[in-house]
Design a protein that fits this description.
Residues 1-29 form the signal peptide. The chain crosses the membrane at residues 173-194. Keywords: Membrane, Signal, Transmembrane, Transmembrane helix. The chain is an alpha+beta fold. Mean pLDDT is 76; it is low at 1-28 and 168-204. The relative contact order is 0.26. It has helices spanning 2-23, 171-203; strands at 30-33, 38-43, 45-48, 60-63, 67-69, 72-79, 84-88, 95-100, 103-108, 112-114, 125-129, 138-147, 150-162. Helix 1 (2-23) packs antiparallel against helix 2. The longest helix is centred in the C-terminal third of the chain and has 33 residues, at 171-203. It has two domains: 2-24 and 170-203; 30-162, Immunoglobulins (Immunoglobulin-like, Sandwich). The protein is 27% helix and 38% strand.
Length: 204
């Protein structure tokens, strides 16, 4: 009977550890457009009530080979959610024209060059939520990337309003959580194996 309890306890620890390890690395959905020579991904984003999303919102771009683009632009059009605004991001390196609280058009006077690497958050904008925003509400941001001689690439990012700071589980806390998860997984697996070995010895 004691061996049965031990196996159940260690199994529960293994499951708990696996869940903790999974929570430490949340996934983010993304709308992806694959093209030639340019492909683009449009990540979803979470914004806390009364705050600003941790990550700026912008398309991820990559190329099938060395490519140079000029007269690049990214337009943003938010809809479907109340109390959420789009704000120019001074750190993006471009120039943004604010058409309204939910519509921005950003351009880059520089040449955009690809050498096989991807560019994350190109000409990004900030997403903020007022205190009047409702947690759980979602909206859509229609994003269009364009350049001279290139067919415009359009995609959609989802904006979800959440409670709290919106901080991802990273840094020391994530390391601690993942470490505990791994320890629990190891303890669960090791305990089950040890119990099986003890049972084998008793049967022999």
């Amino acid at each position: 009977m004691q061996h049965l309890y031990a196996r159940r306890l260690m199994g529960a620890l293994a499951v708990a550890g696996a869940l903790l390890a999974t929570v430490a690395g949340p996934a983010r959905a993304e709308d992806i457009h694959r093209g030639d020579p340019i492909s683009a991904g449009f990540p979803d984003i979470e914004v806390p009530v009364g705050g600003t999303a941790i990550d700026p919102l912008g398309p991820t771009l990559w190329s099938t080979g060395p490519t140079k683009l000029t007269e690049t632009k990214v337009s943003y059009d938010l809809s479907g959610v109340d109390g959420v605004r789009l704000v120019p991001n001074e750190a993006s390196g471009g120039e943004c024209v604010r058409k309204s609280a939910t519509r921005l058009v950003c351009s880059d006077p520089r040449e955009l060059t690809f050498e096989g690497e991807s560019i994350e958050g190109y000409l990004s904008v900030l997403v903020t939520a007022d205190e009047t925003a409702t947690p759980g509400d979602t909206g859509k941001v229609a994003i269009t990337f364009s350049a001279k001689g290139l067919e415009p690439i359009a995609g959609t990012s989802e904006v979800r309003v959440i409670r709290g700071s919106g901080l991802p589980v990273t840094g020391p806390v994530a390391g601690l959580t993942a470490g505990i998860g791994l320890l629990l997984v190891g303890a669960g697996v090791g305990g089950v194996l040890a119990t099986r070995r003890r049972r084998a010895r008793l049967i022999v």
